[in-house]
Amino acid sequence: MLKPRLITALILIPMVIGVLFLLPPTAFAGVILMVCMLAAWEWGQLAGFVNSGQRLCLAILCGLLLVVMLLSIPRHQYSVDLLQIGIPLWISLGWWLTALILVLTYPRSAVFWRNSRILTIIFGVLTIVPFFCGMFALRQYDYQQSHTAGAWWLLYLMLLVWGADSGAYFFGKTFGKHKLVVKVSPAKTWEGLLGGLLTSALISCLFSHYAPLELSHKKLLICSVVAALASVLGDLSESMFKREAGIKDSGHLIPGHGGILDRIDSLTAAVPVFTCLMLLVF
């Protein structure tokens, strides 16, 4: 299993960097739109859709919603002050606080949404749409002054999240004894969480010194720690929904990594939370 994961990662990492730095904003938005539609397709399985046609309709509706949102934005005006971008980012903070409660109280919390397909779909919308808005807004950051400023921020955030995930895995395997949320994800431990945060802090220190990130060290550290914690919550919440749906992976699109949701679950929480803190709070 480790070999295909490494091979896939070696292929995907250059592709991701190329998408971040080489594509113009419109093309970048198109790529993220396709990713979100694939995520919506996989979320259909979490919502209980076993029919491919139903899941396809869910993916198309998600894509149409995002396209309408994009078309409603005036050309070259991509500020987070716009309601179409700012409101979903603010809403995402409320959703992830709610998700935290759902995860910590699972399986009791599932009594309220277990048999409601509509509620599960709403949870999916609250996960995917703010993720799209966060990716889009962060890529557009200071675009008039520097075409790559937003790309650097997104690369930093991705490395931060992936570093937290890798640090948590290795620390958890080596030192893990105390379970984090055993009823949601038995493999995760408090030692792993601490290791992930330490890895994120190290990445934050190194990246802030060698990359063009224009934010004070104190504010960057706050945004980074909260984003790292949010990434863990994103992972746990998807695990909760998969456990409730009785599936191990959200899909099989990425060899060795499962589905799109399995690969971006941490980012779906970290991206909107980080973007909201950085662009709307600080």
From TrEMBL:
Q: Where in the cell is it found?
A: Cell membrane
- Which superkingdom does the taxonomy of this entry point to? Bacteria
Enzyme class name = transferase
- Matching InterPro entries, A to Z? PC_trans
- The record lists the membrane-crossing segments as 28-44, 56-73, 85-106, 118-138, 150-171, 192-213
| Presence of keyword Ion transport | no
Catalytic activity, as annotated: a 1,2-diacyl-sn-glycero-3-phosphate + CTP + H(+) = a CDP-1,2-diacyl-sn-glycerol + diphosphate
Keywords carried by this UniProt record: Cell membrane, Lipid biosynthesis, Lipid metabolism, Membrane, Nucleotidyltransferase, Phospholipid biosynthesis, Phospholipid metabolism, Transferase, Transmembrane, Transmembrane helix
Concerning its family, UniProt says:
Belongs to the CDS family.
- Protein name, please? Phosphatidate cytidylyltransferase
Query: Which organism does this record belong to?
Result: Candidatus Fukatsuia symbiotica
